[in-house]
């Protein structure tokens, strides 16, 4: 039987380098290698290479420096390098990267070690190259192994043009090297977007999705806003047994855009999951969102199991969502300046009962829905949360691309501020 093994190094140009192993129709050898990698240390640290002194040069082995400087394509260690076009992520940073494949037969034998060194040079800062190094341990591979090892890398860049010089060597000093140019640029219609990385800047890709946001200097001249955010942390596919990194990162990017808004002074944040029909995390009236605590709570999600009690409830999902939304909208502990729902669509077998919607009463604050939907053409119908927001005369925004997130939030915060100022004027007039 043909054996296939794919070793995906998810962040080869990032601060942390991870092996993710997928075995498709792998034979005995392939499964053995998978077990070794999955059972052992799956993390391999990659770090930006610092200069020997401030403002100085990065120290490299003479042969490595010569290979990078020569910009020669070498295949002593056979490999195929395919650059990936720089693309804008939901984190409002460009991600440029590559795929490199190596035939497993070239790695056959005793344990090996791959060392990758590469530099990214901004065109407008040719004297400021950014260097990265990476060491990847390879387990012993049998001589009859077939298939390829595929390494995928990514680095964060701002708008600009860049040149990449890349090399990899094994313990036998066989070398694979390549170089290419890449460009990160916003379309003309999106030039007003404020990215989260400056032009001509190269950074290691973020390896900590739940790291805490730095403090934000909040505006006080019109009174800080008090906003409640309700997020459904769930995969795009409601039947999926895992929350995919792409979905998690997109939802976190929505949250981080809200968290960085200087006009918001207080956050109440509720994370829930429709598949488990439960609240995962709650934070009330805080000066900033606690992302590490949120990450710890999400780590306890267990989407691959089924609660027998929930199975016995014929309309359990509808009842849960109706009660949940009523509780969050009619929360009497504090009156927010806005409530923002976010997450993928929640498609139920039946609509929320009209009686439940009527219980929401006359809401005194604006309600918004940031519907994260990567393929709106496949499901163009309004979901249960969208119907509720429409009933409350709120506004829904479909978040399919990074630009959607930027422009949606720009409009939402403008409407919240307008509502806050208008409400203040009305209350002042009625008190006179």
What attributes does this structure have?
disordered C terminus, Rossmann fold, six-stranded mixed sheet, Immunoglobulin-like, eight-stranded antiparallel sheet, alpha+beta, 432 residues, 2 domains, disordered N terminus
How is the secondary structure organized here?
Elements lengths: L5 E4 L6 E7 L5 H12 L3 E6 L13 H9 L3 E2 L4 E9 L5 E10 L8 E11 L7 E9 L9 E10 L2 E10 L5 E10 L17 E3 L20 E8 L12 H15 L4 E10 L4 E9 L4 H8 L9 H4 L4 H14 L8 E6 L10 H5 L8 E6 L11 H8 L3 E5 L2 H30 L1
Parallel strand pairs: 13-14, 13-16, 16-17, 17-18
Antiparallel strand pairs: 1-2, 2-3, 3-8, 4-11, 5-6, 6-9, 7-8, 7-10, 9-12, 10-11, 14-15
| Helix proportion range | 10-25%
Task: Give the integer mean of the pLDDT values.
Answer: 82
Count of alpha/pi helices: 9
What would you report as the Rg, rounded to the nearest angstrom? 25 Å
Query: What is the CATH level 1 assignment of the largest domain?
Result: Alpha Beta
Spans with pLDDT under 50 lasting ≥5 residues? 1-46, 424-432
* CATH topology title of the largest domain: Rossmann fold
């Amino acid at each position: 039987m043909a054996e296939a093994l794919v070793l995906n190094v998810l962040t080869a140009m990032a601060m942390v380098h991870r092996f993710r192993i997928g075995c498709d129709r792998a034979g005995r050898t392939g499964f053995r290698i998978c077990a070794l990698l999955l059972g052992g240390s799956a993390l391999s640290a990659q770090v930006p290479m610092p200069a020997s002194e401030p403002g100085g040069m990065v120290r490299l082995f003479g042969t490595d420096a010569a290979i990078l400087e020569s910009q020669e394509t070498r295949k002593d260690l056979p490999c195929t390098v395919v650059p990936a076009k720089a693309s804008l992520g939901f984190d409002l940073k460009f991600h440029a990267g590559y795929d490199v494949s190596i035939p497993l037969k070239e790695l056959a034998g005793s344990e090996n070690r791959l060392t990758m060194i590469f530099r990214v040079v901004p065109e407008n800062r040719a004297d400021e190259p950014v260097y990265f190094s990476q060491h990847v341990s390879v387990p012993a591979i049998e001589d009859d192994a077939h298939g390829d090892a595929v390494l995928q890398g990514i680095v964060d860049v701002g708008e600009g043009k860049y040149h990449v010089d890349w090399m990899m060597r094994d313990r036998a000093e066989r070398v694979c090297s390549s170089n290419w140019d890449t460009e990160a640029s916003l379309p003309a219609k999106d030039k007003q977007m404020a990215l989260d990385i400056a032009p001509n800047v190269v950074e290691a890709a973020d390896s900590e999705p739940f790291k805490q946001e730095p403090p934000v200097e909040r505006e006080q001249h019109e009174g800080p806003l008090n906003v409640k955010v309700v997020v459904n942390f769930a995969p795009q596919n409601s039947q999926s047994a895992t929350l995919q990194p792409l979905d998690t990162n997109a939802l976190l990017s929505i949250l981080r855009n809200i968290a960085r808004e200087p006009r918001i002074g207080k956050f109440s944040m509720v994370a829930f999951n429709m598949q488990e029909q439960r609240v995962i995390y709650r934070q009330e009236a805080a000066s900033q969102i606690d992302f590490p605590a949120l990450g710890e709570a999400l780590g306890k999600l267990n989407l691959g199991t089924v609660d027998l009690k929930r199975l016995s409830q014929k309309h359990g999902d509808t009842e849960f969502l109706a009660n949940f939304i009523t509780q969050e909208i009619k929360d009497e502990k504090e009156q927010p300046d806005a409530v923002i729902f976010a997450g993928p669509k929640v498609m139920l077998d039946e609509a929320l009962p009209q009686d439940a919607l009527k219980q929401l009463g006359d809401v005194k604050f604006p309600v918004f829905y940031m519907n994260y939907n990567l393929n709106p053409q496949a499901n163009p119908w309004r979901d249960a949360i969208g119907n509720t927001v429409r009933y409350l005369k709120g506004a829904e925004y479909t978040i399919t691309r990074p630009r959607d997130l930027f422009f949606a939030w720009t409009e939402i915060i403008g409407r919240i501020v307008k509502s806050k100022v208008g409400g203040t004027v009305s209350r002042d007039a009625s008190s006179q």
